[in-house]
């Protein structure tokens, strides 16, 4: 009998799941349920308030002191965790060249698409683009990304000279938040160079050492910023300490999205590859009759942003972390990119002129760069149609996340307004 939650957490593809069985990542979270004082640099959130919100079986509600009961976890980090699906990278990190399971991830880079004849949109952008075939571009992306240090599908026009440097800025999460869209947009900046695939250095490849990591990076000229994105870092317990020990001034970017929608997106991704898995409604609950949400399911757990952020604030001041709204990255990509460029100390070069809204895809896409013949949209693995989820389940999930969201708003000083959203996709 399959445990589908474990199956869902198993590696799936390069971008999102990995190409080979990976060791389970470390458990998430720290002593969250202790009345610890996280983030001395920032504030002391009332952690005890969150205790009662935690999704433990009724007999184990920590606020009631019942944790002393046998079998009850004392803290959230003791809830068994299913491993996160994530990305071990392309051939350089273990994907056999041409492997089907490795294709989709590379296709997540902005695709250079064929122009569809007659699909005129505006004089400026020239044409709608057809939804591209993933495979051809994927193969191209894979081969470009095939060795450590290759540009990995870079869309930057910077010539391949300079020096390989460790990244000064990282997109650390969240999975399904819009991390690929952000990375590809910031790569349009001439002062940014980024590795196109996910190196997974701080979670899976750490033992390979910093020289391996440096070698994965593209070459940069003096003054250019090196970046990478690996969304699983945000939920990796060791990542903050490891990144801090690499460089304590590393700039961190987190793209966050309504955790309910994010969870459904996560599920949708798995469903697209394993249509036989149980419904979201089944997986989301430990006990549906009692309304007990299963927070040990990674699709749910990743969205407890306050929990994960608390871990980062042990090592980095809030001022070193930028939170990008995954929702606004779609509705106002230029506005979010302005914040990202300011945060990175870059001139605002990526502006509204770089984007157009592709009605076919339902997303903003990058206009064609000067040296290229085609605009770029993300591949089919972004923007999948989400299954319709029982509204009662959505309602319960919203209730579940609300206190964590509120805590997250307090911690970040930003209100992402997820409570006000009428419906999930
Ligand atoms: N411009 C643009 N084009 C396409 N998709 C966009 C864009 N901006 C944000 N998004 C949203 O990004 C979601 C995928 O997030 P990630 O790239 O972080 O996914 S992954 O973790 O790397 O697999 C993806 O989620 P789903 O719609 O659920 O597929 C998109 O909603």
What integer value in Å does the Rg equal? Answer: 21 Å
Helix share bin = 25-40%
Mean pLDDT: 72
Order of helices and strands: HHHEHEEHEHEEHEHHEEHHEHHEEEH
The number of strands is 13
Structural class: alpha/beta
What gross morphology would you assign? globular
Spatial order of strands in the largest sheet: 4-6-3-7-10
Beta fraction of the residues?
5-15%
The biggest sheet amounts to:
5 strands, parallel
Number of helices: 14
What are the segments in which pLDDT stays under 50 over at least 5 consecutive residues?
Answer: 10-157
CA-to-CA gap between the ends?
31 Å
Bound molecules: 3'-phosphate-adenosine-5'-phosphate sulfate
EC number: 2.8.2.-
Protein name: Sulfotransferase
Binding site for 3'-phosphoadenylyl sulfate: 176-180, 257, 265, 382-386
Domain Sulfotransferase: 167-402
Secondary structure: elements and pairs:
Layout: H1 4-9, H2 47-51, H3 103-107, E1 111-112, H4 134-144, E2 163-164, E3 169-173, H5 179-186, E4 192-194, H6 210-216, E5 219-220, E6 225-229, H7 239-246, E7 251-256, H8 259-273, H9 280-284, E8 285-287, E9 292-293, H10 298-301, H11 305-312, E10 321-325, H12 326-331, H13 333-343, E11 355-358, E12 363-366, E13 376-377, H14 391-412
Helix pairs in contact: 11-14
């Amino acid at each position: 009998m399959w445990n589908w939650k474990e199956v869902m957490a198993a590696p799936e593809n390069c971008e999102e799941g990995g190409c080979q069985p990976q060791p389970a990542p470390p458990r998430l979270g720290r002593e969250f349920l202790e009345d610890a004082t996280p983030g001395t640099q920032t504030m002391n959130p009332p952690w005890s308030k969150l205790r009662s919100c935690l999704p433990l079986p009724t007999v184990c509600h920590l606020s009631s002191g019942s944790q002393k009961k046998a079998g009850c976890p004392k803290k959230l980090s003791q809830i068994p965790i299913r491993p996160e699906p994530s990305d071990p990278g392309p051939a350089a990190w273990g994907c056999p060249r041409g492997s089907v399971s490795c294709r989709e991830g590379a296709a997540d880079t902005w695709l250079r698409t064929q122009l569809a004849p007659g699909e005129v949109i505006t004089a400026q952008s020239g044409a709608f683009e057809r939804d591209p075939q993933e495979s051809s571009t994927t193969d191209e992306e894979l081969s470009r990304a095939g060795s450590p240090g290759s540009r990995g599908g870079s869309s930057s026009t910077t010539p391949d000279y300079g020096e390989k440097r460790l990244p000064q800025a990282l997109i650390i999460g969240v999975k399904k938040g819009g991390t690929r869209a952000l990375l590809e947009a910031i790569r349009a900046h001439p002062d940014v160079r980024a590795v196109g695939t996910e190196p997974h250095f701080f979670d899976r490849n750490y033992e390979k050492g910093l020289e391996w990591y440096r070698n994965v990076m593209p070459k940069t000229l003096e003054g250019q910023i090196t970046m990478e994105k690996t969304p699983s870092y945000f939920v990796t317990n060791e990542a903050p300490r490891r990144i801090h020990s690499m460089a304590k001034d590393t700039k961190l970017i987190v793209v966050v999205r309504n955790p309910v929608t994010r969870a459904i997106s996560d599920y949708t991704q798995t469903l697209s590859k394993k249509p036989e898995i149980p419904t979201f409604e089944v997986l989301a609950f430990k006990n549906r009759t009692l309304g007990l949400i299963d927070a040990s399911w990674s699709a749910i757990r990743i969205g407890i942003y306050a929990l994960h952020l608390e871990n980062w604030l042990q090592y980095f001041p809030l001022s070193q972390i930028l939170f990008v709204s995954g929702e606004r990255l779609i509705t106002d990509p230029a506005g979010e990119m302005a914040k990202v460029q300011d945060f990175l100390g870059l001139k605002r070069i990526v502006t509204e002129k770089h984007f157009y809204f592709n009605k076919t895809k339902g997303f903003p896409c990058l206009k064609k760069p000067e040296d290229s013949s085609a605009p770029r949209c993300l591949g089919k693995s972004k923007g999948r149609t989400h299954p319709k989820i029982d509204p009662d389940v959505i309602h319960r999930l919203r209730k579940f996340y609300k206190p964590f969201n509120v805590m997250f708003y307090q911690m970040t000083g930003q209100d992402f307004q997820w409570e006000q959203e009428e419906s999930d996709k």
